[in-house]
Design brief:
ND/Mrp_TM; mainly alpha; about 525 residues; two-stranded antiparallel sheet; 2 strands
């Protein structure tokens, strides 16, 4: 069957795209005139640059792995061919959006993502999945309305869609257009106050979640702000984006610390990382933010696929208290999940280390307010803590429903490409996409310092929590040991003064040293 071997062709296309990315130097533009009526010309425009080609390669490689993963994962389901066809349409819509050269062409890919995501979420045809798909579709329609308003307001000023960007660069956009650009981006990327639809989208099959949370639907808003940054940049919009992104970053990190559903924890992780990227855009660090978006796509797709394997082999349970991941029974899955989790934490020298800790080093070496530095360290600390919490529960596995194994090699093989990318792609793309960095030895020295600062603040607070937990729960012997931290976190009226002091001291010391 052709559809069962399509992933080999997808892997081949991904390899060709990566070669083109390395050799690509000059941008390419294509335009097609669809309609010219009165003073408005409808033009479909495509534009390829090195950054866009890198993003297309990322989307296609992740789609190839997800498609390969879906074949064994969805083998027992009905209408698998329909599912794979909609999944392909979903990826093509994102690639269409990336290649677009004007707002009208971007809108076509934008709408395609909304429609195909609704079809994928309602795949199981249950009441909950139908409600979730409609809720997700309507929330994304709000972003579509903002997009249409932006196009309408700009078309009233400029005759063609291609001249919109050129004239806005020279004259600047109106304040309403700038605000609508922010709103359409945060709606699609599920930032506060439009973040509720992302957890609803977890009703979709796990392969869909892997593609949605890594490189397609939720990254579309980030990408639009990155490409059309000169339209919306103003002090008011930058301040608004900073407030919303920091709020999303902190709230989603805290939610991930108390959630017990494995897929929702990874979803909250996606929210926090997207909030971090929006925060970078709000302080005008665009290239590093886009680089982190690419690296995040690799290890987040790997994290979702490994989580899906764990759920698939745990009789469908998603509660981390009822799962187990044993080194003796499933060593390969343990390694894959560990690499994706540690890359999220920024462990040297994985993909997340070269992106997240690079940004942290930029922030610490600049003159940004100490409050922003503290909030960044706080969010990074929460990220490390909920990753450690997942590993803690999976390693204990006292209430596990069924044991894990590595017997299903077809699923494991589909994750190996992303496993290699999560290990090696950070260092490869760093010097190809950001060639103007300092020498390698100075960058590595500084990044390792920021990583250990992040880990040390996490461990200091963690051991302090253990002391408080022991004193608080000494009168509750019936609570199991691996539930104590959650019980304390939800019921203890705690103070973060120790965390404040620790974080400020570490930031002060490292700013003095480096």
């Amino acid at each position: 069957m052709i559809y069962k071997n399509f992933h080999f062709l997808a892997y081949l296309i991904s390899s060709i795209l990566f070669i083109f990315f390395i050799l690509f130097k000059k941008p390419i533009s294509l335009e097609f005139d669809l309609l010219s009526m009165y003073d408005v010309a409808l033009v479909v425009s495509f534009n390829l640059t090195q950054g866009k080609l890198l993003f297309i390669f990322t989307v296609f490689l992740i789609f190839s792995s997800v498609y390969h993963f879906s074949l064994p994962y969805m083998s027992s389901e009905s209408n698998v061919k329909r599912f794979l066809l909609v999944l392909l349409s979903f990826a093509i819509s994102m690639i269409f959006l990336i290649c677009s050269g004007n707002l009208f062409t971007t809108l076509l890919g934008w709408d395609g993502l909304g429609v195909t995501s609704m079809l994928l979420i309602m795949y199981y045809c249950s009441t909950s999945s139908l409600k979730a798909s409609m809720y997700t579709f309507l929330m994304n329609r709000m972003g579509d309305c903002f997009f249409l308003l932006v196009i309408f307001m700009l078309c009233c000023k400029y005759p063609t869609f291609n001249s919109i960007l050129q004239n806005s660069l020279e004259q600047g956009s109106t304040k309403m257009v700038m605000l609508f650009m922010i709103f359409l981006a945060i709606t699609k990327s599920a930032q506060i106050p439009f973040s509720s639809w992302l957890t609803k989208a977890m009703e979709a099959p796990t392969p869909v979640s892997s593609l949605v949370h890594s490189s397609t639907l939720v990254t579309a808003g980030v990408y639009v702000l990155y490409v059309y940054q000169d339209i919306w940049m103003s002090e008011t919009c930058l301040t608004l984006l900073m407030v919303l992104s920091i709020s999303t970053l902190l709230v989603s990190s805290i939610a991930g610390m108390v959630e017990t559903d494995l897929k929702k924890i990874v979803a909250y992780s996606t929210l926090s990382q997207l909030g971090f990227i929006f925060f970078l855009f709000s302080i005008k660090i665009f290239e590093a933010g886009f680089f982190y978006l690419i690296m995040h796509a690799f290890f987040k797709a790997l994290m979702f696929m490994s989580s899906g394997y764990i759920i698939h082999n745990s009789s469908g349970w998603q509660d981390i208290r009822k799962m187990t991941l044993n080194q003796m029974c499933s060593p390969t899955v343990v390694k894959i999940f560990f690499v994706s989790s540690m890359s999220l934490c920024g462990m040297p020298f994985l993909a997340g280390f070269y992106s997240k800790d690079l940004v942290l080093d930029i922030l610490l070496s600049s003159n940004y307010p100490s409050v922003l530095m503290f909030l960044m360290m706080l969010s990074f600390t929460f990220t490390v803590m909920y990753v450690l919490r997942i590993c803690w529960y999976l390693s204990c596995g006292i209430l596990a429903v069924s044991p894990m194994s590595d017997q299903d090699l077809s699923m494991i093989k589909s994750t190996l490409v992303l496993f290699m990318c999560s290990c090696l792609m950070g260092s490869m793309i760093l010097w190809l996409f950001l060639p103007n960095l300092p020498p390698l030895d100075s960058v590595i020295h500084s990044l390792v310092a920021t990583f250990f600062m992040k880990i040390s603040s996490t461990l200091l607070w963690y051991f302090d929590l253990l002391g408080l937990t022991g004193s608080f729960l000494k009168n509750f012997p019936n609570i199991k040991s691996f539930d104590k931290f959650d019980y304390w976190l939800k019921n203890y009226n705690w103070s973060i003064s120790d965390l404040l002091i620790t974080s400020f001291l570490l930031i002060f010391l490292f700013k003095m040293i480096f």
